[in-house]
Amino acid sequence: MTSPHPESTYPWKAALRTGLKTGLGTTFRLLKVIIPFYFLIEWLKLTPVLGWLGHFLSPVMKIWGLPGEAGFVLVTGNLVNLYAAIAVMIPLHLSVPQITLIGLMLGISHNIIVETAVLKEAHAPALRLALLRLIGSGLVGWIVSKFLIGS
Amino acid sequence: MIHLLTFYSLFLHPLIGALKLSLRLVLIIVPLLILFELIHALPFWRRFSGLENPQGKIRQFGLSPHTLVPLFTGIFLGIVYGAGVIIRISREKALGKTDLWLLGLFLATCHAVVEDTLIFVVVGGMGLWILTPRILLACALVSLLLIGVRLRKAKQISS
Predict the structure, then answer these.
(1) Interface TM-score (ipTM) > 0.90
(2) Given CB atoms, is A60 within the 8 Å cutoff of chain B?
């Protein structure tokens, strides 16, 4: 595949061609795993499931010094994405430390479904990593909440 | 009318979103991998990254130098783009199990640091408190992994 070229000339044409080919191929591979989950999540948003999970989580939100409604924000961020979570968070009128804490926790673990699928496609140990993210998010959030919010 | 609305929210709306997403991925990943190939072909880069010498590892840690490019791509652009570079590199079968664990641990917890932090800063969050603990967690997880790898190696040598 690589055309013979002298060591001194820089094979930019071959690089362009390979880059275009691998770029399109890689994008296609990623989209193949992302798109089904994208649809799944869009449909999930139309069901009451996110609301149920938020309700389920709201009693434990005080572990992080957050109001019960923050459960909806965390569920949305983890199952959908950060933009959807922010849309849920804004009407709650939370304090600056609370917004910061949610930003940290969701920064560590968000969009878990799609990102786990992507990591799996890259042959990383995706499911164990997803679990570590959720644990890390809760643990680091708990430690930082002691500084930001107090108890 | 109801049917039309249901059709829109069930299929059309997600489809438009999926198409936009696809377009964004193509527009970022294709130039990214073209740039990757262009840099990859540089004689300087081949020497620096140890490509000329497949056994060349970042010795202390037992990691492949190939981890660096996907690592930084992921940290700044995001996990999907980092994964794109990982998929490209795995064509060369240069990434071992430890490399994939390292990339996974760091990128799963700490990626797209600029975008993820800024969107919360925009709505009132404190950027340093959002970013610093995240980086510390990623570094802690990677350190644990590397300590584990070293211990296992020491065990193998002694036994």
Answers:
(1) no
(2) no
